[in-house]
Design a protein that fits this description.
Among the domains are: about 90 residues, Cytochrome c-like domain (Cytochrome Bc1 Complex, Chain D, domain 2), CATH 1.10.760; about 35 residues. Helices cover about 50% and strands about 0% of the residues. The chain has 21 helices and no strands. Helix 1 packs antiparallel against helix 9. It is extended, with a radius of gyration of 32 Å. The N and C termini lie far apart (about 70 Å). The protein binds heme C (6 copies).
Length: about 425
């Protein structure tokens, strides 16, 4: 029943909703930069040029090998930016104070010249740099990675702004309906109470909901007990299935090596360090020599003086000819056989499918359960990548009569001896 207070509550909620609603509307409109074109075609064309020539060193909103580029036309004129992109060394040689300072800040790293880019290319490039891949501020605050995934509307479906508006309108309509229903009930109650009713009916009309009576009723007690029992049983069964499963295991490592920094921010390919992953059973953990390819030069982060204590540990290992004692994270029991090359090179499965978002991890954690059920489930569901693989041609012909796709289970992926010695 609607008392006065609940009506006030509803109209309060309604005004908060209205405020939220207009804030959402407001946030989807951002100020336009008058300087460079912001049409979708220009941005798309610019992105192609960017990916082909600049991506290996630059990101839009984050420092990489070179500076974050967005806002360059605020920091400098368009003419300056164009000249710098065409031939940065010429601008630096001309004694331009900003350019020389920047060059020094980036440890005299030479940005290649791009004389071959046309004026049109450069205009598109600047459109992409200023307007491309805008990051949703809420997602950016939550630490979501910027870049290709954030391209507006790229995924198809209803864009986020519209979804928010539609939801807002729906909530608004629902609240209106509630208010109207409440008013109707009030009017009707008032009306009936004024009628000359038998005592019994009068009691019924003006009765209040008695919550404590409902809570003590048998039905509620039975339902609550059943829920509690089901919950305890489920936890117990899950717990038993979890014995020996190391999902989430993330031991501390002897050196604070970060995949988020190396594989994420600097985008070093997994295979550069895990050299065995496409050719053999084991992925391999890199030896200190591979680290030294870069760390002979890189002795500290962010251009700090001296040698970082963590990097010093690599030098100690090399000087003393001692291997770095990394703690193993993933480990199948000896009775099981797993081969990386078969899955990565032949099966074409991404590392992340099994290992999770390694490129975001400061410390590696085991992402999957690594149980037999996990292997089998995937073998039941995954189709085999047969295209361009002559080894499978005969099989594909034989399988053509079946209406189901060729799955790993069809080539013996459920046979005990395939996975057990
Ligand atoms: C090999 C790496 C590399 C590539 C490729 C590269 N840059 Fe750069 N860029 C740099 C570095 C390093 C700097 C810092 C200045 C310096 O060291 O010369 C820089 C500076 C800049 C600046 C000045 C930024 C500022 O904040 O003032 C702009 C603009 C720029 N680059 C645009 C581009 C564009 C556009 C492309 C592609 C057409 C590109 N760069 C390709 C490395 C690169
Ligand atoms: C610069 C070298 C380097 C790169 C690049 C690199 N890793 Fe690693 N990786 C290591 C080192 C060193 C370890 C061992 C220390 C640790 O666990 O952090 C390791 C450990 C791992 C482990 C855990 C191994 C275990 O003990 O079970 C996985 C899984 C892994 N890397 C996957 C990846 C993936 C996927 C990528 C690409 C997205 C990648 N790595 C890129 C050097 C690298
Ligand atoms: C392809 C080049 C490359 C390789 C190979 C490489 N690193 Fe790095 N490493 C970097 C870069 C770049 C940085 C960050 C420097 C910066 O931010 O100024 C870095 C930073 C680090 C840091 C951070 C130091 C600190 O004080 O925070 C550690 C630790 C490190 N690397 C360890 C390793 C280890 C261990 C290996 C070998 C398994 C390795 N790196 C292989 C390029 C590399
Ligand atoms: C189909 C799932 C799957 C895929 C795909 C996969 N891994 Fe693994 N990885 C595993 C399993 C399972 C283990 C544990 C193997 C063991 O203990 O014998 C493992 C172990 C590792 C290890 C520890 C060292 C070793 O070889 O045992 C590294 C490093 C590693 N993976 C890196 C990678 C990288 C890099 C990729 C992508 C190029 C990748 N993995 C793709 C399932 C996978
Ligand atoms: C993400 C999916 C996925 C997971 C998880 C997975 N596999 Fe596979 N596995 C595949 C695919 C795909 C192939 C087929 C590759 C090919 O084309 O030969 C395959 C093939 C195999 C084969 C060869 C089968 C044959 O008949 O030739 C073995 C053995 C195997 N996997 C073992 C394992 C083991 C052991 C695990 C668990 C530790 C595992 N796999 C987990 C996808 C997976
Ligand atoms: C796709 C690969 C795969 C296939 C096929 C497979 N297994 Fe397994 N099996 C595994 C893996 C991986 C483990 C280890 C799981 C773990 O450590 O939790 C395992 C574990 C087991 C264990 C438990 C051993 C222990 O110590 O707990 C038994 C028993 C077993 N498998 C029997 C079989 C039998 C019987 C078949 C054939 C019907 C079979 N497996 C087929 C991958 C496979």
């Amino acid at each position: 029943m609607f008392s006065k207070r609940s009506l006030v509550g509803i109209s309060l909620n309604f005004s908060t909703l209205a405020v939220l609603f207009f804030m959402l509307l407001g946030s989807s409109v951002y100020a336009a930069d008058p300087a460079v074109a912001s049409s979708d075609e220009a941005i798309a064309a610019g992105k192609t040029v960017f990916n082909a020539n600049c991506k290996q060193c630059h990101k839009l909103d984050q420092k990489n090998v070179g500076p974050a580029l967005r806002g360059i036309t605020d920091r400098q004129s368009i003419a300056w930016a164009t000249k710098f992109i065409r031939n940065s060394q010429a601008v630096i040689a001309s004694g331009d104070a900003y350019a020389t300072a920047l060059y020094k800040e980036y440890n005299n790293t030479v940005m290649p010249s791009h004389e071959f880019l046309s004026d049109g290319d450069l205009n598109n490039l600047l459109s992409y740099i200023e307007h491309g891949d805008k990051v949703d501020p809420a997602a950016a605050a939550a630490g979501a990675p910027a870049g290709d995934q954030a391209a507006p509307g790229a995924g198809g479906g209803i864009p986020n702004e519209y979804l928010a508006i539609i939801l807002g309108v729906l909530v608004f309509v629902l609240v209106l309906i509630l208010i109207v229903l409440g008013l109707i009930i009030r009017v009707l109650t008032n009306y009936i109470q004024k009628q000359d009713l038998p005592e019994e009916d009068k009691e019924f009309v003006s009765q209040k909901t008695n919550f404590s009576k409902i809570l003590k009723s048998d039905a509620v007690i039975i339902i609550v007990t059943a829920l509690v029992v089901a919950f305890v049983a489920k936890s117990a069964i899950d717990g038993l299935y979890g014995v020996g499963v190391q999902q989430g295991y993330a031991p501390a490592q002897p050196i604070a090596f970060s995949h988020a920094l190396h594989a994420g921010q600097y985008e070093i390919a997994c295979q550069y360090c895990h050299t065995g992953v496409e050719i053999g059973k084991s992925a391999n953990i890199p030896s200190a020599n591979i680290c030294m390819n870069c760390h002979t030069h890189i002795q500290n982060v962010g251009g700090k003086e001296g040698v970082s204590p963590e990097i010093q540990k690599i030098y100690n290992a090399v000087d003393n000819n001692q291997p770095i004692e990394w703690v193993r994270v993933h480990n199948l029991p000896d009775l099981a056989y797993f081969n990386h090359a078969q899955h990565v090179a032949v099966g074409g499965i991404e590392c992340q499918t099994c290992h999770g978002p390694i490129q975001e991890m400061e410390v590696v954690a085991q992402h999957s359960t690594l149980t037999m059920g996990w292997c089998i489930d995937c073998h039941r569901q995954t189709e085999i990548a047969t295209e361009g693989n002559a080894y499978y041609d005969k099989l594909v012909q034989l399988h053509a009569s079946s209406k189901d796709a060729l799955k790993v289970k069809d080539i013996g992926g459920l046979e005990c001896a395939k996975c057990h010695y």
